[in-house]
Amino acid sequence: xxxxxxxxxxxxxxxxxISLNIAEHSFKISVYNRISEGEETIVSDFLNEHENFNAIxxxxxxxxxxxxxxxxxxxxxxxxxxxAIDTVIQQLLPVLEDGDIIIDGGNSxxxxxxxxxxxxxxxxxxxxxxxxxxxxxxxxxxxxxxxxGDLEAYRQIAxxxxxxxxxxxxxxxxxxxxxxxxAGHFIKMVHNGIEYxxxxxxxxxxxxxxxxxxxxxxxxIFNNWNQGDASGYLLEITxxxxxxxxxxxxxxxxxxxxxxxxxxxxxxxATALSLGIPNTMISSAVFDRYLSSFKDERVKLSKKITRxxxxxxxxxxxxKKAYQFARIVNHQQGFLLIKEASSTYNWNLNxxxxxxxxxxxxxxxxxxxENSITILKNSNDYFNDENSFSYLKSNEDAMVExxxxxxxxxxxxNTISAAYNYWxxxxxxxxxxxxxxxxxxxxxxxxxxxxxxxxxxxxxxxxEEL
Length: 466
Ligand code: 6PG
Fold this sequence. Notes:
Blueprint: E1 6-9, H1 13-24, E2 29-32, H2 42-49, E3 56-59, H3 62-67, E4 74-77, H4 83-92, E5 101-104, H5 110-121, E6 126-133, H6 135-141, E7 144-149, H7 151-164, H8 183-209, H9 215-225, H10 233-243, E8 245-246, E9 249-250, H11 264-275, H12 280-292, H13 295-302, H14 316-344, H15 351-357, H16 367-378, H17 386-394, H18 396-409, H19 414-426, H20 433-444
Parallel strand pairs: 1-2, 1-4, 2-3, 4-5, 5-6
Antiparallel strand pairs: 6-7, 8-9
Helix pairs in contact: 1-6, 8-11, 8-12, 8-14, 9-10, 11-12, 12-19, 14-18, 14-19, 15-16
6-phosphogluconic acid binds at residues 107, 133-135, 191-192, 195, 261-262, 264-265, 362-363.
């Protein structure tokens, strides 16, 4: 039997799809899945279903799987993030040799990836923490791939990853070396954070439109927006979702309004909080999901209030401008978080290149992401980019109008508001933060700086006699 060039552990939805993608690109591949309850025939079923790919070898024995691989072994783990990754690493160690490469393709926390990198280095094994975006379809047809870890190890797996990745509009792979240790998983985490806010923005936009329009009408507006500068994958699928029927009924109207999550959004928020970056939109989108899950309470409380339904509708032209406005702020906040992490962790991240690999294959691909390649190359920041800034400046009124509509009709718009307030705060010379400083000094002698003294001087006042 030939030796395989690549191995995949875990034949879940993503593992299967990526294995087929690799095999389709004429790489010889070995796949492994453990035998456990409900997964007894997963490997044989997979091989039977895909007999036409004769370069796939399947295993349920890890030692045989490892022996089937070319050295240095290149093994992609596609299983649920968390403790299971450490279990598989421990099972793999006895069957690996110095210089082999383990790639974690799940949504692992970047700090876990940093720890695993160090641990495996001490065992002479290279570890690549690799963000993969695009869901099942992306994995099968071309995902956006965000690998981090040892550069030399990346070079050895690059020919395969770059082949199976989606391609940008110039035909280049949506895969690039991100940075050392946890950088790839960090970037995937922020990708998901941006994704949360983008999804919530569409949800709030839907809430505004559905005040007066039906599913078909909203779908057609989204479809129309999707032809121009507001276009994006998430908008495109939402338009399709709104038109989908089951037994003659719109499926969307049958779906319970409790949004779930697997944690990457809250990790982005927690990271922004710990790095001191005001990532208000991701946090708002995470809290909106949490809030939605209090369904029983919402139902109970809503019965105590009757809200008049007015015969009014939101101005669609203004709403589109507000939607784009909020998206620019979301991207600004997301990339500022990346910029901060880059200096904190010495990752030397290339923001423009990150935007480039997010232009195809991933969930947040959009026209704005296409434009972001240039914006981030030239100014590293949307607010310092002349065109983006003037767009925000000239569409501030659209935000106000849309928010006013929401306030009047009692439609909660937490994430659109977060975008607006961030913009207003960032463009306000004097904020009331001096009140906070005075209060801190009053009750806790925390000191304050003064406008009539240098930045390095701190003052304390005895505000009243004890
Ligand atoms: C992707 C997605 C993918 C997954 C999210 C969903 O880039 O392909 O982001 O990773 O769909 O993790 O996350 P939640 O379950 O937390 O919404």
